[in-house]
Amino acid sequence: MKYAVIVLFAITSTLMACSKNEDPAPSGEKATLSIQFDNIVGNKNLQLNTGTYTNAAGEQFSISKLQYYISNIRVKTTAGVEFVVPQDSSYFLVNEADPASQFLKMRVPEGDYATLTFVLGVDSLRSTMDISKRAGVLDPSSGMDDGMYWGWNSGYIFFKMEGLSAAAPPDPSGQNKYRYHIGGFGGYSAPTLNNIKTISIDLNAGGIARVRTGREANIHIMTDVMKLFNGATTVSIAANPTVMFSDYSTLVSKNYMAMFSHDHTEN
Question: Which domain holds residue 244?
Answer without folding.
Answer: 27-266
